[in-house]
Structures are given as structure tokens and as C-alpha cells.
Amino acid sequence: MSKFGELIDDHQPLLLFFFDNDDELTHSMHPVLKDVAAAVGDSGKVIKIDMEKNEKLCQALRVKVLPTLMIYKSGEMLWRQSGEQDANTLISLMQDHK
What we know:
Layout (H helix, E strand, L loop, with lengths): L1 H7 L5 E6 L4 H5 L1 H11 L4 E6 L4 H6 L7 E6 L2 E7 L4 H10 L2
Parallel strand pairs: 1-2
Antiparallel strand pairs: 1-3, 3-4
């Protein structure tokens, strides 16, 4: 989890997307995340986190519903939402937290 601390300390907004490969809804959001990453470019990051490979992190963050998305900046969680989101909403949120 020390790597997670380093990751979220960035001064740019960071969108975290928690997913499971066996979940159709989270799988359907991967193209949306590509659109978000393309739109924010160098002014933010989009990171996908596989729940199966990061169980301790998911427990620590109390991720229970998929998909779960969070925006961090400078070590602080600024936004969190569970459920499907559209690209325009996520792009707008990332731009709001530049």
C-alpha cells in the first residue's frame, strides 16, 4: 500500500477505477475510461485497479460495489461514486479538480 500512497500524492487529479474481470458492467466501462484518459491528457491520470489482485487495498478503501470510481489529488479523496458513469461526467469531474 505504500505504492498507493505515492500514487495518490500526485498534484494532478487521479481517477481510480476498481473492477473485476468477471463483472460485465465494469468490463463495459473500459472504453469510457479510454475516452476520459484521452480527454484529460497530461493533466490527469486514469488508473484501473483489479479487485482480485488488490484485495487488501479494496478492503482498506471499503470497495464493495463494482464499479467504484474515486478521484484523488494531493493525497486527498475528492470524489467517490459506485456504479456506471459516462465519459462526459468523468471528464468534467477531472477538469473540475485540476
